[in-house]
Amino acid sequence: MSKQILVTGGTGYIGSHTVVELQNEGFNVVIVDDLSNSGIEVLDAIEKITGKRPAFEKFNLTDQDKTNAFFEKYPGIAAIVHFAAFKAVGESVEKPLEYYHNNLVSLMNLLRSMREHKIPDMVFSSSCTVYGQPEKLPVTEDTPRKPAESPYGNTKAVSEDIMRDFARATEGINCIALRYFNPIGAHPSALIGELPVGVPNNLVPFITQTAAGLRDELKIFGDDYNTPDGTAIRDYINVVDLAKAHVVAINRLLNNKQKASYEFFNIGTGEGYSVMQLVKAFIKVTGVNLKYSVVGRRAGDIEKIWADTSYANNELGWKAEKTLEETLKSAWEWEKHVRNIR
Ligand code: WQD
Question: Domains in the chain and their CATH numbers?
Fold first, then answer.
């Protein structure tokens, strides 16, 4: 009987891609999601890709009774991959209490359930946002965290501390936090991908929606940064490469290869690309004449960040493989699928 993995937030962007890779690895997946930022039709897409439909339960993990009832109903959970969280940076500035409550109470309910139901392992979705604007680049796992630029970012930093302290205090509990850089792209089948609700905050979905004619033009937030072309630099990681990192982390824990009860890894490509470089690469790989203009900086943005991925490469044995070009192409193929564009 293959091991059963709980994926919270499993109908979301990174969650759904991780469910696919876990199923490809032979795991039996159950998803918990409150569908506040994703649709139930993602289950059909996952089933089309892998031939296996994950089990699904709809509720919010801040509800302790429903969380307890879930673990009574699914006594065979071997490990948890925890994505479920609110994640819009701007919204978190307006609604800090909702963000702290949702993201931290969900995590604590899960950790409490792990202790009660003897579930040893959790892989957690963290973010490079915990580094703020690093003094030195590239960022390693030794780079000190900085006060987060937003309540969303702070929920990630505080979540890491909660896991660290709980794992150290609780026999048999092991957690790995994966600090994502900028996830982009879509599954090569174009059946799952990023589908932001409303106007996209993130760069790549805004680019693909502009290319699809849903947005007039892309606004580039600032070209007066201290970078080669003046636009901000990020480490854009393909979402399938990122999903595979979760499978590697789950196997590390299930096989007791972890070196400590709490570990964290930078999951990026090691390459930084500017906004303008991304725009030019998108136009080149898709042939779309993307309309864009440069406007002022966006409040809260950092100037540049990219990862030193040697620790994840050597310790996890994981490395990002997809090129930026094929990743941007996959994002465009997905957008065309969603909008029924030939
Ligand atoms: C990337 C670059 C923008 C939109 C955030 C969160 C991070 C994670 C990923 C959740 C920046 C520029 C963007 C646009 C633009 N979120 N940009 N025009 O801000 O690096 O990271 O999303 O897990 O935690 O902090 O990503 O895609 O919003 O921006 O010029 O319309 O693109 O200024 O330089 P960001 P992003």
Answer: 4-184+237-267 (3.40.50.720), 203-234+270-339 (3.90.25.10)
